[in-house]
Amino acid sequence: MPSDRIDDVDRTYRLRKYLNASPAALATTALLLSSTCLQAQSQPEAEEVALSELTVTGTGPAVERAGGPVVGYRATRSATATRTDTPLRDTPQSVQVVPREVLVDQQDIRLSDALQNVSSVQPGGTIQGRSDTFIIRGFRTQTYAIDGVLLNQANTFSPVTRDLADVERIEVLKGPASVLYGRGDPGGLINIVTRQPTLVPSGDISVQGGSFGFRRVQGSVSSAIEGVEGLSGRVSFASQSDPTFRNYGGRDNARTFVAPAFAWNPSPDTRVTFLGEFTRVDTQYDEGLIARNGRVPLDDRARYYGEPFARYNGTANFGLLKVEHDLNANITLREVLNVQWGGFDTLATRATGLNAAGTQVSRREIGVYSTYAAVDSQTEMVARFDLLGFRHTVLAGVEYTNGYRRAYQTQSTNFPSVSFQNPVFGAALVGLQFQSDLKQKTELNGLYVQDQIDLGLGLQLLVGVRYDTGTQYYFSRTPTARTIPPDQQLSGTSPRVGLIYRPVEPLTLYASYTTSFKPQTDNVLNVTNPPPETGEQYEIGSRLDLTPDLTLSAAAFSITRNNVSATDPNNANYAVITGQQRSEGVEADLAGQILPGWKVIGGVSVLDARITKDTTFAVGNRLVGAPAFSGSIWSTYQFQQGFLLGWNIGAGVTYVGRRTGDLNNSYSVGGYARLDAAVFYDFNEHARFSINARNLTDRRYIEQPFNQTNNQPGAPFSVLATITARL
Which helix (H) or strand (E) element contains residue 28? Predict the structure, then answer.
């Protein structure tokens, strides 16, 4: 069923449940409504307006709400930046939304594919094929949030690649977000909003097959649960096998994903939701291609420097319980409890460098075993009231985060070298030797308050501040040393202020200042208590509704990042605090419907991201993976009538400029333009067949530079066929 009809049908369904679908009850209700309407004809106009709000069903589009479905390609509301259901035009910070309809039309399988629809966002490396990282406004981030809760309080990255089977929308808050989320990176925050259960039965299932042996099945079903009034459930699932174009020696990459969700309204004033996510990946340990002589050769995109036995196994589990209660029409209490746990293990060979002639790749055999667990609690109040003639929406909250377990054990030994140009598999396993044992625990308490003030005359003010305090415990052991430093005391204050001005209804202007705070989790050589990383951003921007269904947003920003951690160039097992980095740029995003059936989403970014202060790396060097220019555009057209009715076509281009691969700027990867296209046919509202093609020109390029020995090439020309059935 189309998403723009779900809310209307859901309301009708609730009313019928209340009346037990009795014809007599329905007739009685109709008579009462008719009587009320007749009485209203003789009442003042104000009462007529009040009665118009009693509409039970409707034929127009459903009103969008933050966290709910988006009709088309343009979202109008979000809670990511404010934790309140706020129009995007009333948010003094750039927020871009990729709705589910875009994911479906593009048949996005990876989170990185979906995020390339957003300006100033690039894939930042897969951490040897294990996870997702991103470059947002020039800065790398290795984590994201699910329904407003940050992942990996105990770990430094997600141990699995993200599945999109239960994703309703993907939102990117540009710039620091610590005022509401505490620890975080200065470039921005990715928030994945999941599909919610519905009382109305709905469901979809897709079967996919594509190039290089790709196979996938995914689905999601939702319905009321009989026996409990107001209780509904949803389960989303996916399973895929992806051998890919990389020459692993005949091994597949596999992922399984299950996400049960429940929603319960025990009373009109109380809402309870639960989300569980369980993901397992079994993949090849893949470092990609190696840089040589300042560039990454692309004569063979499938070249693999590991061994067929190299494997990576990861699990990530997530449970989220949210309870909301309206004390009255103006005050809402909210409690969010979250638990996360998982880990990974790997046995692989890693490239460590090249010989002087650049003909042989030195390697090490490694074994890694890691586990993590964390809990998070958010207690919040939202209050709406008038004070001194101004309308206020106040959010106040307390957050407790306990990343109570992060264990990381490594074993390693030298492994036979392999040819750079013609690597050959077959080297036998070598006995591993103990290398290091790391245990870490981080505990934080955060107190935050935010006020959204309507000043009148088109002006709005947003002010907020957060204070975090806590401790970090650290233990490390090597074959020659055992380190147990004193607990590190952590604290940080994160203010935000923003001003919005709407001179005319279609145009919004804003300016804001915001900051970030992040405890150091890397193992810094010879530093017992490394200072936390901090950041600050100045941003000005605008949003313009070109038409009621098409919005153009633009922003200019400057972000400064202090106390930055990076891999020690002299010892890859440690990190160094590199000093200060700065990113400045301008960007623009477009989303919506140009004409009936013609939709578009895309963005463009001009960025200057460099080291500004440092004692390890040269001042002026560009930041890793941050292109000076990038952009993307994707557009679809649905034929409205005639013999082509039911057919849809789509096309897009993604351009990414040259990027450096390390902070030394010792090598770079070239820019590229990738062309994609799609054609799909809707047999009716219940069935669709689609064919999506990527990289139509078979362009050779590096998609994700990470370091000298980790550079993931982009896939060759590939085709994906999908059959989807819906209830």
Answer: helix 23-40
Q: How many CA atoms lie within 13 A of 544 on its CB side?
A: 9
Per-residue tokens: 260? 């049960």
List of residues 6+ apart from 220 with CB closer than 8 A: 165, 166, 195, 203, 204, 234, 235, 236, 237
How much is the pLDDT for 32? 34
Burial (CB < 10 A; 0-12, 13-18, 19+), residue 481, is exposed
Q: What is the mean pLDDT of residues 436-446?
A: 90
Q: Answer yes or no: is pLDDT of 396 > 90.
A: yes
Question: Two tokens at 518?
Answer: 């992040």
Q: 30 vs 13, 25, 27, 43, CA distance in Å?
A: 16, 9, 5, 20
Distances (CA, A) of 250 to 235, 289, 311, 416: 33, 18, 12, 21
pLDDT tier at 485 (50, 70, 90 boundaries)?
confident
Here the tokens at position 360 are 């042989």
Report the DSSP beta bridge partners of residue 647. Answer: 681
**Which are the contacts of 452, defined by CB distance < 8 A and separation ≥ 6?**
82, 84, 86, 90, 392, 393, 394, 460, 461, 462
Classify 299 as helix, strand or coil. Answer: coil
Contact status, residue 103 vs residue 171, Cβ threshold 8 Å: no
CB < 8 Å & 24+ apart, contacts of 667-673: 667/291, 667/294, 667/295, 667/296, 667/708, 668/294, 668/295, 669/295, 669/296, 669/701, 669/702, 669/705, 669/711, 670/295, 670/701, 670/702, 671/627, 671/701, 672/699, 672/701, 672/714, 673/699
How far is Cα of residue 95 from the mean position of the Cα atoms in its chain?
12
Q: What is the pLDDT of residue 4?
A: 41
**Which amino acid belongs to residue 213?**
G
Which residue matches tokens 């560009």? Answer: 622
Q: Which residues contact 496 (CB under 8 A, 6 or more apart)?
A: 176, 179, 450, 462, 463, 464, 465, 512, 513, 514, 515
- For residues 168 and 64, give the distance between their C-alpha atoms in angstroms, rounded to a whole number: 13
Give the three-state DSSP class for 573. strand
Q: Indicate the angle between helix axes 45-52 and 23-40, nearest 10 degrees.
A: 150
- When pLDDT is cut at 50, 70 and 90, the band that residue 528 belongs to is low
pTM: 0.89
Mean pLDDT of 279-304: 94
d(CA 329, CA 27): 31
- Between strands 188-194 and 145-146, the pairing is parallel
| Secondary-structure breakdown of the chain: helix, strand, coil percentages, each rounded to the nearest 5 | 10, 55, 35
> Rounded to an integer, what distance in angstroms lies between the CA atom of residue 727 and that of residue 222?
10
Distances (CA, A) of 34 to 28, 76, 109, 195, 411: 10, 35, 51, 37, 78
Distance CA 693, CA 690 (A): 10
CB 650 within 8 A of CB 633: no
- What does the alpha-carbon distance between residue 668 and residue 705 come to, in Å, rounded to a whole number? 8
- In angstroms, rounded to a whole number, what is the distance separating the alpha carbons of residues 85 and 67? 8
**Average pLDDT over all residues of the chain:** 89
Helix H segments across 97-151?
Answer: 100-106, 111-115
Q: Using alpha carbons only, how large is the chain's radius of gyration in Å?
A: 26
- Which of helix, strand or coil describes residue 120? coil
| 64-726, CATH topology level | Maltoporin; Chain A (2.40.170)
Contact criterion met (CB below 8 Å) for 561 and 533: yes
- DSSP code, position 427: P
* DSSP character string of 489-540: EEEEEEEEEEEEEEEETTEEEEEEEEEEEE---S-BTT-SSPPPEEEEEEEE
Question: Domain locations in the chain?
Answer: 64-726
